From TrEMBL:
Protein name as catalogued: ABC transporter ATP-binding protein
Keyword terms of this UniProt record: ATP-binding, Nucleotide-binding, Transport
GO molecular function: ATP binding; ATP hydrolysis activity; transmembrane transporter activity
GO CC aspect terms: membrane protein complex; plasma membrane
Organism: Streptomyces alboflavus
Location of the region described as Disordered in the Swiss-Prot/TrEMBL record: 1-42
Ranges of residues in domain ABC transporter: 46-282
Amino acid sequence: MAGGGCRDSHREGVRDVQAARSDAVGEGGAGGERERGALSPGGGALALDGVSRAYRGGAVIALHPTDLAVERGRFVAVMGPSGSGKSTLLQCAAGLDRPTSGRVRVEGVELGSLKEAALTRLRRERIGFVFQAHNLVPSLSVAENVALPLMLGGADEATTRRAAVALASVGLGDRADDRPTELSGGQQQRVAIARALVTDPAVVFADEPTGALDPSTAHDVLALLRQAVDHDGHTVVMVTHDPAAAAWCDEAVFLAEGRVVATLHRPDAERVHAVMRRLGRGAVAA
Ligand SMILES: Nc1ncnc2c1ncn2[C@@H]1O[C@H](COP(=O)(O)OP(=O)(O)OP(=O)(O)O)[C@@H](O)[C@H]1O
C-alpha cells in the first residue's frame, strides 16, 4: 500500500542535493559524486546503485552515477528539464539500455548479470511499460492486446481470463472485442495500462503516459495508476513534465544535468511548480 494515510503529516519541502543525499543514506552526507533519490532506505521493487550512462566515449554524460531505491507499492514521478536525463534513467532502470556503470536491480535481480534472452524475459514478465504513444497493435482486439505479454509465453484459458480481469480493472471489460482504433485516446491508454499490469509486474515504467491526453482524460488515467498502486500494490515509476501529474505520486524526484537535485515527498502541484521554476526552462510542460 503506497504511502499510508499520512499525506499531510509529511510536508518535507524541497531539499537540496546535500540534504537528499543525507536523508537517503541516513548519515551526514559524505561527499562523493553520486546523487541519491531519497525514496527508500531498503530498496524493494527497484534499486539503482551508482547507475550512470555516457555517450560518445564519455563526451556526453547523460546520467551521472545515481542511486535510487523504490519500495513496492510506490508511485514515483521523475521530473526535470528537457535533456536532464529522465529518459536515460528510465531506460536503464527498465533494462532497455545498459548503463555505463553501476547496478540496476528489479526485485533484487541484477539486470547487468543477465544475458540478453534472460533480460528480455525479465522485461516481459516483471516489468510493465506505458508510453505516451500506447503502441497497441491495431490488427488485434483490445483483449488480445492486453493478453499480448502473456501470449508470448504461450496462450491458454488462464491467459484469456487474466486479460479479462486486467481489462475489467481499467473499466473496459465491455470493449474486449473492439479494435484499438474504435476507442478514444484515453481508453486506448487505459488498455495500455491493463496490458502493463496483466503480468503483475514488479515495476511499471510510464513515460509521459498523459502527454497526449486532455486534462480530464489525463486525470482518469492518473487515477487508474494511483488505484493500481493503492488497491493492488503495484509500483509505478513515471516520467512526466506535468506538475499536476506528479501530484498523484508519493514522491517526485527531480533531475538536472544528469543528477538528482531534489526530492519531494507527497508532492503537490504548487511545490512541484516551484522546484521546476527553480530548475529552469524546459522543466514545466507548456
Ligand atoms: N544516444 C545518445 N547519444 C548522445 N547523447 C544522448 C543520447 N541519448 C541522450 N543523449 C543526451 O543525454 C542527455 C539526456 O537525455 P534524455 O533523453 O535522458 O533527457 P530527458 O530528460 O529525457 O529529456 P526530454 O524531457 O527532452 O525527453 C541529453 O543531453 C541528450 O542529448
